[in-house]
Write a structure and sequence with these properties.
Shape: elongated
Structural class: alpha+beta
Strand content: 15-25%
Helix content: 25-40%
Length: about 270
């Protein structure tokens, strides 16, 4: 009797061990998938086209062969076909086989990459692009980049009614979008959607403004004034009303008041 029971017990123990091991591995796989999903959620995703099936080389792409999908930006090939480029993909032939569920790359497709878009497509309807000559310190040491938002200040030397020449600075425009720095466009800063290093060494900055603001800036340049840009935090949409015209008299009158405001309100120093 014992000889029969021992093998049965061994089989039961083996089955229990098998199920416990299988359950452990299932839980580990689930945990890995959870961690992977959390990691992907924290990454920037881009929309691309992937193959719905194994596509042989020499096949003309149809709408049934591809579908849009999201993949992490950091893992995307440089020449991946973006969702917005999908219409340019249809009808073209594959040069090499493409596996199912794999992102489609332009290097695997007959023909060249889609032509690069120019500045005009970045300008919103009703707005205008105008370039102003600023560089160095006037452009925050060249740290201003496309897609940044800035305030535009102008410094001019004007003649007062009494004939005296006086220099003054005033804020011309607030919260203006930068479309380009030199020849670098905003779209080039995100190479077809993927971040690239900021460009430096430019002498002009192109801003997106209304037609009236464009006239304003062009006139300011003709006044032989100096244009300076101040950089904003991307989340700062505030507007300062009634900003004064600053001249040497204003500086003399307000320098103590401004420093006191800074220490009390910005640095939060008590007892001043």
């Amino acid at each position: 009797m014992k000889e029969k029971i021992i093998p049965l017990v061994s089989i039961v123990v083996g089955l229990i061990a098998f199920f416990l091991t299988a359950q452990y591995f299932r839980s580990r796989v689930a945990e890995i998938e959870r961690q992977r999903a959390a990691l992907l959620a924290g990454m920037r995703q881009i929309e691309v086209f992937v193959a719905t099936r194994d596509i042989p080389g020499g096949t003309a792409i149809t709408a049934q062969d591809v579908r849009p999908d999201k993949i992490p930006e950091m893992s995307a090939p440089d020449d991946v076909v973006l969702k917005k480029e999908g219409l340019q993909l249809l009808g073209k032939k594959t040069l090499y086989p493409i596996s199912a569920k794999k992102p489609i790359q332009w290097s695997n497709i007959e023909g060249e990459l889609p032509p690069a878009e120019g500045l005009s497509s970045s300008v919103h309807p009703g707005m205008r692009a105008v370039s102003i000559p600023v560089s160095g310190a006037a452009a925050v040491s060249g740290m201003i980049a496309p897609n940044d938002r800035v305030d535009v200040l102008g410094t001019f030397t004007v003649q007062r009614p009494n004939g005296e020449m006086e220099t003054e600075t005033r804020t011309l425009l607030q919260d203006v979008t930068v479309l380009a720095t030199g020849q670098t466009l905003a779209k080039q800063m995100t190479l077809r959607g993927r971040s690239q290093p900021r460009a430096t060494g430019y002498n002009t900055v192109t801003l997106e403004v209304t037609p009236r603001e464009a006239e304003f800036l062009v006139f300011a340049q003709q006044m032989q004034g100096r244009i300076t840009l101040t950089l904003r935090n991307p989340a700062d949409v505030s507007y300062e009303s009634n900003l004064p015209e600053v001249n040497i008299k204003y500086v003399d009158e307000k320098v103590q008041e401004m420093n006191l405001y800074r220490q009390q309100k910005i640095r939060r120093k008590a007892g001043l």
